[in-house]
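Today's session is about reading a structure prediction critically. Students often jump straight to the picture, but the first step is always the sequence itself: look for stretches that repeat, for charged clusters, for runs of hydrophobic residues. Only then move on to the predicted structure, which in these notes is written as discrete structure tokens rather than atom positions. Here is the chain we will use throughout the hour.
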Amino acid sequence: MPLISSDFKPSIPFRNGHASTIYSALLRKPVKPPQERERLILPDGDFLDLDWTRKDEPRDRLILLLHGLEGNAQRPYMLGSAGIFSENGYDVCAVNFRGCSGEPNLRFRSYHSGATEDLSAVLQHILKRYDYEKIFLKGFSLGGNLILKFLGERSELTRHITAAAVISVPCDLHDSLIQLNRPANWLYAQRFLKSLREKVAEKQSRFPDALDQGGVDQIKSLKDFDDIYTSRAHGFKDALDYYQKCSSLQFIESIATPTLLLNAKNDSFLGAKCYPEERCRDHAYVHFESPRFGGHVGFVTAGSYYY
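Below is the predicted structure for this chain, in token form.
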């Protein structure tokens, strides 16, 4: 039952995974809904910026949106989602991860694929301040991995989530890294690496005792970044320890929240381990849909909104 037979079939140009990925990331121009920014102070004194889309009349449903690696609440996929949910009776809270809202965060640490403590802090804030009858989660790529991990950890907060949807998820982080290191993905990897290196250089200038310039200079690949910065800043032994502990694949079986996982078969960021068909085949809660097309967060349709 939870394996969904997909009927998604875009127009011919977007049946190419790279075409749909690149167009959706760089050329898509969704209408930006009205947003109001709220700064949430975290338990460790750092902050997250939350971009809210709300109507004047009170609503009983909220959806939290979580972006991908080096994304933010202003990315086309986030704005498109915020717009369609706002038009259909939801308040929308688009979360900018630490250091992703246009201003460096305050701590040496930042965000990563398994930082469920920050999602928990957002939920605790919302439950304390607002009175929503239903709360939904939607995450893209890294944000989707984080949501699956959060739901599988089954914390006290999980019971407040009505349902979730996760898109283009690297369920096995190491497998996804291997794919990004392939020659066909060189441009994507370099784009991510350039942004990450700029951020870690800024961190080094403010926290020279935590990371010296020599460490920054050694970052030549995404794995180097995770070995030298991500693991050191977030308490992992090394990159492989981080990938093992934070990959959502191992948490799927424990999920007890209705969840949709949507991964395109032609997503060049994802390897075979990122398509958990067997884990979902008899799952009571996790529904897995894997259309032939869609690329990475690139499910282009002819209308205003994506599939």
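Discussion point for the tutorial: The mean pLDDT is 96.
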